[in-house]
Design a protein that fits this description.
This protein has twelve helices and eight strands. The chain is α+β, with helices and mostly antiparallel strands and 293 residues long. The strands form three sheets. Strands 5-6-4-7 form a four-stranded antiparallel beta sheet. Helix 6 packs antiparallel against helix 8.
Length: 293
């Protein structure tokens, strides 16, 4: 393999980079960036994720990044004691959870989930008569259900599958769009692949029935039919008294009135949520997008 020398004439256009091994890519990057032997050795250490597996997960892999996993203790959730993994690089986050959980250990947390339904969106543009097309699509609900359920017989066997149909007329900068929502019960799965497959399958039918052109056909991360909630109550004496309580309320009031504070307040909340999502191998970006929406 020829490795270009580090210097002013280096080029980011590297032919066939994706076809090389992680080590070959790393050698090219090291030459491009002028990395020393210690840096190359550090990057080459993939930890507990085998290079072959990492190379199949994303494109152009050269290394992995280790994130500490801490354990949140003192948690009683729905009457059961649990230990919760949290992956984060920020200090004090795990400690804060442990401390807060200790303060209300006797009462604990109560959780609920509103359902297991996800939404796939199919975007149709240049629809000649959006109002008539909307009604036409709603009338074909049973056909759309059959198409969607046919995409994933196993999901249907497990009790999931197509649940409902919504068709929205949306006025946008690019004109009127006809947006079809496929409501799908994905059971315990996050369900992105399942609902995306259904949206892809039904898209040509929606184009034909509406007379328009279909562009996007993909899930929405605004999962407002799948809300997870947790509820807990702390006694004033257990959190440090009236002054601490009043300080917490005042901080909330500040954030409720000021977006600059609110953004940071929400970041603090996501410190705990994202850490658990990452530690359990889930999609942090999807959860964060839904939360911020």
């Amino acid at each position: 393999m020829t490795v270009p020398a580090h210097g002013a004439n280096r080029s980011a256009r590297i032919a066939g980079f994706h076809r090389k091994t992680p080590q070959e890519r790393l050698d090219l990057v090291a030459a491009f960036a002028g990395l020393d032997a210690a840096a190359v050795s550090h990057l080459a250490n993939m930890g507990n994720l085998p290079p072959q597996l990492a190379d199949k997960m994303i494109e152009n892999v050269i290394a992995t990044m280790n994130v500490p996993i801490g354990i949140a203790t003192n948690l009683k959730i729905d009457g059961e004691d649990v230990l919760v993994p949290m992956a984060t690089e920020e200090s004090s986050v795990v400690a804060a959870v442990c401390n807060a959980a200790r303060q209300n250990y006797e009462a604990g947390f109560v959780t609920s989930v509103s359902g297991t339904q996800m939404i796939a969106q199919v975007q149709a543009v240049d629809v000649p008569d959006p109002q008539a097309s909307r009604l036409r699509l709603l009338e074909r609900r049973d056909e759309i259900k059959a198409i969607c359920d046919g995409c994933d017989p196993l999901l249907v066997k497990l009790g999931g599958g197509f649940r409902d149909l919504e068709v929205r007329i949306l006025e946008t900068l690019g004109g009127t769009m006809l947006i079809t929502h496929l409501i799908v019960d994905t059971r315990d799965a996050m369900g992105a692949n399942a609902v995306n497959t259904m949206a892809e399958k039904v898209a040509p039918y929606i184009a034909a029935w509406s007379g328009g052109r279909v562009y996007l056909r993909i899930l929405s991360n605004l999962a407002d039919r799948r809300l997870a909630r947790a509820h807990a109550v702390w006694k004033t004496a257990d959190i440090g008294g009236d002054k601490v309580r009043d300080g917490i309320i005042s901080a909330y009031q500040f954030a409720a009135a000021d977006p600059y504070r609110a953004a940071t307040h929400n970041k603090g909340i996501m410190n705990g949520i994202s850490a658990v999502i990452l530690a359990t191998g889930n999609d942090t970006r999807a959860v964060e997008a839904g939360a911020h929406a």
